[in-house]
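Reference record
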Amino acid sequence: QYNSFNSFVYLFCMGLFMQAKYAIMFLWPRSFVNESAFWDKCWKLLLLDNQQVKFSSQSHGNLLQTSETTLPDSIKTSNDTLFNQYLAGVIDGDGGLYLSKAGYASLDITVETKDIAILYYIQNILGGTVQPRVGVNAVRYRLHNTKAMLNVIDRVNGWVRNTKRVEQLKKLCLHFGVVFKSPQPLSLNNPWFAGFFDTDGTISYSFKHGRPQLYIGVSNKLEVDVTYFKDFFGGNTQYDKNSDSYKWAIYAEKDIRQFFNYSQSCPVHSAKVNRSLQQLQ
């Protein structure tokens, strides 16, 4: 049993500062053993047992490479609902469904280079290309084959819910003669949250009354597009003037624990989580 969630938060932040357990054990031997075991267990439940992407240190040109994604057989089927929901979340976060003036449809998803595993995870199922963006620390996934795009539309129709993305999907549906489906209700078993978090989420800390405090959050241009997280995980949303976006965040122990529990069944694939895990190993 643990008397204070501050111990949980403190271990996280010291892991960021020292990047080694032994540094914490040296400075705080009195409470390290039990609280460290608790912290390790939480993160392993959240991530280690759910990782489906294997990373490689090999590089090719300026583009970081990952090994082949390891996927359950069910994910590889064309009608897998869980992957489709995850894909819709990624597209809602940092993707785009486009229709050129010449009538060519395409899907673009851009992420930071460190999160390239997300794109390979998707490419392994849908096809398409993954290439570095010139002059910026980012990589882009692109799909523009007509048959493949019809497959994407079929997969995410009814799951995409970002305000801008819904309008883009409507245009594609109209162009291809597909009936547009309104977004279906979300639930805590829906990987849409994981997909959105992979692209627009963060795990970090802030200081409150001079003490570090863990928080989990997501951001987007419109408040309506982040309130889904508030509805299911608690917390608050507020406008951030510096980034000209709305941010949702949770700080309370019960809310963070609920997000952890969700992530056990709907794992995330971005480097932000793997980085946090490495700092505690």
Remarks:
- The CA atoms of residues 110 and 258 lie 29 Å apart.
- The two ends are 23 Å apart (CA to CA).
